[in-house]
């Protein structure tokens, strides 16, 4: 592990960058600002390494950026409708930051404390965060742990834990953007999702409450499908995106151990990303709101240059009783794990 300075935010506080490399040369970099995944450098079929993620040159970009590149997002990944929900008979009003809705929260703009490195696990780092009562309007003091670990099977594990002193809601994920070619757009990426259903949304991208079959829709990725094949179809849900910005319901649902949820492959480089998770959903986002205003690492982040495969519970679950619950009770522990596994073909 290499540890180095990663620049300062506007108040003068300095971030640290932690860089890990496995026996195969795969490289992972993370920082304590936002418990953010900064880059992944992965090999092609020919052994050529490239940065396959979106990010900034230093921590100042993460302070001002709006795209959640690589961030640990919470308290609630995805949207909560009208920035409000009720729990135990009490109504809670959140900070609206996405039209009338609340999106992701502000964990990506917080300092996380880096824990000790275990001598037996030199390619592992654990970050800690205390989110206090009424943070963005949420109930309860929540203690969060997020652990990154890199192994020689080219797997990056992200383990999330949280406890609370008062019933609350929580939905945590990593928000990395991927382009397995390292440049260009992601329309030629071939994706498989182990999901027979998806979650339709309304005009402000809040779930309607329906869980719809992917059969005969552009959301059918049960067989390997080129991302660009149906991304501009006339299907009403695609027009809302515009493109893919929807949660796909994994056939295996919640699980105690990570199961294969998604696979993406770039035919030019042969790089493959598999996502394994304990979560019930994969949110497919095709960079529809990247507009060239974000820059970093010699790249300009344009429309559909990158895609996300976010493992999470469903948007607006606190207001959707038929969805898997995101309530964390006092005395219970939230636990979730997602793995990014890289290979080539």
Q: Tell me the number of helical segments per DSSP (H or I, 4 or more residues long).
A: 2
Tally of discrete structural domains = 1
The helicity comes to: under 10%
- Kindly provide the name of the CATH class: Mainly Beta
Would you tell me the structural class of the helices and strands? mainly beta
The CATH topology is given as Beta-galactosidase, Chain A, domain 5
First-residue to last-residue Cα separation:
28 Å
Q: Strands of the largest sheet, in order across it?
A: 11-12-13-14-29-23-22-17-20
What is the residue-mean pLDDT, rounded to a whole number? 97
Biggest beta sheet attributes: 9 strands, antiparallel
Beta content comes to: 35-45%
- The CATH architecture can be given as Distorted Sandwich
Tell me the overall shape. Answer: globular
Low-confidence stretches: none
Radius of gyration: 19 Å
What is the number of E strands? 29
Fill in the keyword field for this structure:
single chain; 345 residues; mainly beta; Beta-galactosidase, Chain A, domain 5; nine-stranded antiparallel sheet; five-stranded antiparallel sheet; 3% helix; 42% strand
Structure overview:
- The protein is mainly beta.
- It has one domain (2-344): Beta-galactosidase, Chain A, domain 5 (Distorted Sandwich).
- It has helices spanning 59-64, 236-240; strands at residues 2-8, 14-21, 27-31, 36-43, 49-51, 71-73, 76-80, 84-87, 90-93, 102-104, 113-114, 124-131, 142-150, 155-164, 168-169, 173-175, 190-193, 195-198, 212-213, 225-226, 245-250, 259-265, 271-277, 281-285, 294-296, 299-301, 308-312, 327-328, 334-344.
- The protein has a nine-stranded antiparallel sheet, with no helix packed on it. A five-stranded antiparallel sheet has the order 1-2-3-4-5, with no helix packed on it.
- The protein is globular, with a radius of gyration of 19 Å.
């Amino acid at each position: 592990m290499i540890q180095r300075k990663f620049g300062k935010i506007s108040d003068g506080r300095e971030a640290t960058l932690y860089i890990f490399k496995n026996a195969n040369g795969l490289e992972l970099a993370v920082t304590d600002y936002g418990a953010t995944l900064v880059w992944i450098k992965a090999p092609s079929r020919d052994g050529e390494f490239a940065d396959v993620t979106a990010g900034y040159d230093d921590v100042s970009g993460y302070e001002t950026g709006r795209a959640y590149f690589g961030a640990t997002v919470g308290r609630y990944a995805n949207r909560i409708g009208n920035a409000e929900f009720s729990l135990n008979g009490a109504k809670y009003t959140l900070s609206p930051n996405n039209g009338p809705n609340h999106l992701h929260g502000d964990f990506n703009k917080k300092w996380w404390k880096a824990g000790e490195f275990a001598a037996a696990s030199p390619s592992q780092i654990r970050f800690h965060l205390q989110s206090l009562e009424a943070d963005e309007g949420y109930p309860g003091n929540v203690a969060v742990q997020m652990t990154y670990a890199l192994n020689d099977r080219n797997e990056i594990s992200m383990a999330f834990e949280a406890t609370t002193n008062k019933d609350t809601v929580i939905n945590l994920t990593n928000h990395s953007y991927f382009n397995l070619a390292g440049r260009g757009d992601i329309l030629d990426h071939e994706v498989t999702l182990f999901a027979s259903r998806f979650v339709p949304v309304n005009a402000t991208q809040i779930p309607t409450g329906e869980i719809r079959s992917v059969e005969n829709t552009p959301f059918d990725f049960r067989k390997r499908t080129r991302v660009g094949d149906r991304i501009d179809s006339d299907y009403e849900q695609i027009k809302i995106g515009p493109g893919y910005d929807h949660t796909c319901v994994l056939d295996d649902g919640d699980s105690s151990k990570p199961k294969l949820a998604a696979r993406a492959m770039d035919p030019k480089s042969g790089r493959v990303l598999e996502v394994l998770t304990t979560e019930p959903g994969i949110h497919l986002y095709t960079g529809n709101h990247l507009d060239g205003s974000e820059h970093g690492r010699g790249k300009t982040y344009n429309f559909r240059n990158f895609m996300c495969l976010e493992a999470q519970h469903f948007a607006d679950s606190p207001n959707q009783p038929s969805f898997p619950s995101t309530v964390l009770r006092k005395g219970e522990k939230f636990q979730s794990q997602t793995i990014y596994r890289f290979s080539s073909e």
